[in-house]
Design brief:
It contains 28 helices and 20 strands. By secondary structure, it is an alpha/beta fold.
Length: about 650
């Protein structure tokens, strides 16, 4: 069978011979005198040197210089993996072994350089890596075997891609000689993972392994963070490196590389382009009578929270955030509008719809935020037609600009860089009428619910979140919250007050049930000194509840707060409102969550009534001897409000059960 050559470039001597032949000259015996003129044979002509210099100047700015990696000679692929992990300053790996990846697990056996955490499922490993990355800002690392081990990481990778979470996944693969033969546990992981990664590759020879790993970390943390997959055939990781190799870094961008305050989140953008637009941004903001800032996770990734607050205060501009942007602006600030969108605050949605200038910073105009597109921000669009306002979009990722909402002015750049540029030119404005209008909306349409009356009644789920918020109010800087996906996620966003970045860790774009518990485990490993609480629903918790065994085995002190309404609550809400209460496959038959926890050697608590809640919550938060689970029996009929129904605009919200 013919093999494709892996050599892409001819040798230097071959190039020299080709150059000679192209001039119509004969190649000669090296012992004979050259038939080429001395000035031609011994050194290139001056114009040629100048041309090379020009080409070099046009090339991408180089990262660290290449050099020979001699210290890796004599190591197996698995041992090289360990060495590069140390070089990348990895301290935690979430891994599940199998035959195809055993050489790597053997290479890191008993390593004292990082923690190896064994989950109970590869999906759990992926979500743990996400939680670790979101809490620390560093890429989470996953190590799994081939076939089903690899395919089980697809959901976490897609989740990380949609939410901009840096993650590097290493998958085992059958030996290169067996690829394509349908060998045991073979899967086309590269083909399967291509749509859900920023980049993926298979390493075909051991000489390429160091570079592939370094590139994976570079790509995962460059630009908008995301997941990268490296597929490792077993023969590559089992082989031994016999000769030195060049240490090469990827040359990915033709634009200038800018480093933000967070060295793990590097940016690539051309300052000349966006700086031309900043005077117009300043003009639009200063002229606006009813501006609003709509901030997303990009603010947190750029560590531009301080600049955002300065912009809001200097311009007297109210701020609303996305689900993933929670914590990017202190919600106790008088200019805070809390979250906007499908289940956002009524006053945030009204503000966006009535603003004459919408300033979107580090956000992507997700459908859960915009509602019906043709009716999004109508007053800003009208102001744009009059030349008095419009929609401004500051976003790092090019594909997010004009993807759903056509904007008037877009700056493809790092949020912090842009805010630093425009802040000195923003004028103070009173905006008394605009802020007064917003205060009226806040007073008329707060987040609210009807509490159950009488002794011995069940808690309302909103009440549980409020109690958690009350008891952690003075220690918010020491608390991280993760959530699953469902009603509990939205109640957490609404009734907990978010004051700090990276304090809310949740699945936004993909909406992955089961995210909360493994993400909490990863977050706790990234920040062991902090209280990490997983706010979960019974259905979401059951998706990955076996990871409680992981927390128990490694004594990872996460706290799981399970709101149990015996339903897939968010789906049931839609069935209540739009399907005449036909509960098709949404009722849950749950285990006893306390006994389940105790079976895993974990402390279990249960709260059945409103009267018990304060003391039970206190015991739950103060327990420090390992992981703990508290089940709270909550009202089954409760819905999440406000709610923007599908196909409706932001100001067509259902405000409550009587609305």
């Amino acid at each position: 069978m013919m093999r494709r050559s892996t050599r892409l470039l001819p040798s230097r001597n071959a190039l020299r011979r080709t150059a000679v032949l192209s001039r119509g000259l004969k190649t000669t015996d090296p012992t004979r005198k050259s038939e080429v003129a001395p000035e031609m044979s011994r050194k290139p002509s001056i114009p040629y040197v100048e041309r090379l210099k020009q080409e070099k100047d046009q090339k991408v700015e180089r990262l660290p210089e290449e050099y020979e990696d001699e210290h890796l000679v004599g190591l197996t692929g698995g041992e090289i993996f360990q060495e590069i992990m140390k070089e990348m300053k990895v301290d935690t790996i979430f891994g599940y072994p199998g035959g195809a990846i055993l050489p790597v697990f053997d290479g890191i056996y008993n390593s004292k350089d990082f923690n190896l955490v064994l989950p109970r499922h590869e999906q759990g490993a992926g979500h743990m890596a996400e939680g670790y990355a979101r809490a620390s800002g560093k890429p989470g690392v996953v190590l799994v075997t081939s076939g089903p081990g690899a395919t089980n990481t697809i959901t976490p990778m897609q989740d990380a891609l949609m939410d901009g979470t840096p993650m590097v996944v290493f998958t085992g693969q059958v030996p290169t000689s067996a690829i394509g033969s349908d060998a045991f546990q073979e899967a086309d992981v590269i083909g399967i993972s291509r749509p859900c990664t920023k980049y993926n590759c298979m390493v075909h020879k051991i000489e390429d392994l160091p570079r592939a790993i370094r590139e994976a970390f570079y790509i995962a943390t460059t630009g908008r963070p995301g997941p990268v997959l490296v597929d490792l055939p077993k023969d590559v990781t089992a082989n031994t490196l016999r000769k030195p190799i060049a240490k090469k870094y990827p040359q990915l961008f033709r634009k200038r590389v800018l480093r933000t305050k967070n060295p793990m989140i590097r940016r690539a953008c051309d300052a000349k382009e966006w700086k031309r637009s900043t005077p117009k941004v300043v003009e639009m903001i200063n002229k606006a009578r009813r501006p609003v800032i709509y901030a997303g996770q990009g603010i947190i990734q750029a560590q531009a929270m301080e600049q955002l607050e300065k912009l809001a205060e200097k311009g007297n501009i109210p701020v609303t955030t996305t689900l993933q942007g929670l914590g990017g602006f202190n919600e106790y600030h008088p200019l805070s509008l809390h979250m906007l969108g499908m289940h956002g605050s009524a006053y945030a949605n009204f503000a966006v719809q009535n603003a004459d200038c919408v300033i979107a910073i580090g956000a992507r105009f997700d459908d859960r935020v915009t509602g019906r597109l043709d009716s999004f921000a109508p007053q800003a669009r009208a102001a744009s037609r009059r030349g008095e306002g419009g929609i401004i979009h500051i976003e790092l990722l090019h594909k997010n600009i004009d993807k759903t909402v056509e904007v008037d002015l877009a700056l493809e750049a790092d949020c912090g860089e842009v805010l630093d540029e425009i802040l000195p030119h923003i004028e103070f404005a009173d905006r008394k009428e605009w802020l007064g209008m917003i205060d009226e909306w806040k007073e008329k349409h707060p987040f609210t619910y009807y509490k159950n009356e009488g002794a011995g009644t069940q808690c309302k789920p909103q009440q549980v979140i409020e109690e958690l918020d009350r008891q952690t109010r003075n220690i918010k800087d020491n608390v991280l919250i993760t959530t699953g996906v469902g009603q509990h996620q939205m109640w957490a966003a609404q009734y907990y007050r978010w004051t700090l970045p990276r304090s809310m860790i949740t699945s936004g774009g993909l909406g992955t049930m089961g995210y909360g518990l493994p993400a909490a485990i990863g977050a706790k490993l990234a920040a062991p000194e902090k209280i990490v609480v997983d706010i979960d629903g019974d259905a979401s918790y059951c998706m990955t509840g076996m990871e409680l065994m992981t927390a128990s085995e490694f004594n990872i002190g996460v706290k799981a707060l399970v709101l149990n309404n015996d339903f897939q609550g968010m789906v049931k809400q839609w069935q209540d409102l739009f399907y005449d209460e036909r509960y098709s496959a949404t009722r849950m038959t749950n285990p006893d969550f306390v006994k389940m926890a105790e079976a895993f050697h974990v402390k279990g608590l249960r709260c059945s009534t409103q009267e018990e809640l304060p003391e039970k919550m206190k015991e739950f938060l103060e327990y420090n001897d390992g992981p703990v689970v508290m089940e709270v029996l909550v009202d089954k009929k409760e819905h999440v409000y406000p709610m923007v129904p599908a196909g409706k605009s932001l100001d067509e919200m259902v405000l409550g059960p009587s609305a």
